[in-house]
């Protein structure tokens, strides 16, 4: 791990003065791991910038609605969100393009994180892989297609279509079925096997309980949830299917016309720095998008880490999710959730 810079050195590097109380930055973030983020990111940044951070949390729908409701007079300065939600905000003209020249750590990012939704409307700060967690003492997983096989009938769970993991799972099932590029036949196939699915879950926490009780022995999950399984005391394994792993990225965006751009850029740049991304990775909060980050073997094992892993991810374009999601949900409700 690289040596962590002192706060004094970082303050110098970011060219800031430490006079608290006269500047405020309001950020909108996911609800998870906020105590850890406070320790790794928020408190150190406040010490450097001489400002106060106002942290707003909630689910993506709530947070996007607040940005839209306050478009004329933004109350959120920057937000972290999925690529498809960022694209939805961009299409509504609610966020502004980012000037990469104002991010000193921009060139340290993996190329796929530099302009993930086009027109420089967002920058990636973390990746996540998605694969299948399974009980290695009870079943062997070689393909995403195994999820709908006879061996797992009545012992498998799938993510609901409305979750982030839902379309990713359908994409990989389609790849296993030779139906790439069209999720409609995949949804129909799941509908035909719906009686074999224990549940269509919305949160990975639901899945942890079901798998610990052995009601489910295989299910797709994001790598960020892997820690909940590997430490459970049961022989859970992370599958490496022949079709590969699915993946996604969360991004930073800046609201349009917030008037607080300089401080928002400073915060985004600090978050993307090698020192902060390393700390967040070692705390197992998020996987780094900064390619200069060097993680310990233990942290790397639990995260989506390294060029080989990231470049091999099957990532669904944000525009495809956004443009087709309504049709997928309609078909899902008609054929799967009857």
TrEMBL record:
InterPro entries: SBP
Molecular functions (GO terms): thiamine binding; thiamine pyrophosphate binding
Gene3D superfamilies: Periplasmic binding protein-like II
Superkingdom field: Bacteria
GO cellular component: outer membrane-bounded periplasmic space
Record keywords: Signal
Extent of the signal sequence: 1-20
Record carries keyword Signal: yes
Biological process according to GO: thiamine transport
Family annotation (PANTHER family): ABC TRANSPORTER SUBSTRATE-BINDING PROTEIN, THIAMINE-BINDING PERIPLASMIC PROTEIN-RELATED
Record protein name field: ABC transporter substrate-binding protein
């Amino acid at each position: 791990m690289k040596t962590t810079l002192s706060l004094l050195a970082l303050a110098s590097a970011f060219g800031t003065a430490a006079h608290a109380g006269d500047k405020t930055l309001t950020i909108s973030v996911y609800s998870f791991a906020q105590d850890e983020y406070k320790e790794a990111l928020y408190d150190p940044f406040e010490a450097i910038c001489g400002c106060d951070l106002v942290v707003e949390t909630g689910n993506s729908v709530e947070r996007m609605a607040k940005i839209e409701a306050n478009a004329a007079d933004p109350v959120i300065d920057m937000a972290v969100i999925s690529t498809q939600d960022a694209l939805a905000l961009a299409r509504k003209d609610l966020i502004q393009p980012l000037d990469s020249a104002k991010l000193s750590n921009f060139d340290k990012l993996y190329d796929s994180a530099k302009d993930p939704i086009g027109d420089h409307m967002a920058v990636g700060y973390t990746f996540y892989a998605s694969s299948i967690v399974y009980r290695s003492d009870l079943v062997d997983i070689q393909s995403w297609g195994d999820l709908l096989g006879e061996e797992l009938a009545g012992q498998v769970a799938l993510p609901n279509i409305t979750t982030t993991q839902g379309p990713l799972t359908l994409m990989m099932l389609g790849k296993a079925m030779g139906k790439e590029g069209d999720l409609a036949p995949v949804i129909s196939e799941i509908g035909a096997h719906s009686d074999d699915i224990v549940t269509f879950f919305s949160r990975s926490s639901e899945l942890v309980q079901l798998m610990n009780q052995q009601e489910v022995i295989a299910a797709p999950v994001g790598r960020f949830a892997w820690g909940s399984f590997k430490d459970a005391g049961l022989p859970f394994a992370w599958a490496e299917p022949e079709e590969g792993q699915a993946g996604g990225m969360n991004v930073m965006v800046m609201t349009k016309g917030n008037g607080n751009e300089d401080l928002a850029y400073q915060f985004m740049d600090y978050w993307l720095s090698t020192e902060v991304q390393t700390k967040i990775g070692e705390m197992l909060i998020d996987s780094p998008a900064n390619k200069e980050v060097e993680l310990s073997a233990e942290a790397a094992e639990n995260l989506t880490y390294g060029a080989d892993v990231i470049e091999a991810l099957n990532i669904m374009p944000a525009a495809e999710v956004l443009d087709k999601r309504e049709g997928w949900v309609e078909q899902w409700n008609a054929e799967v959730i009857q």
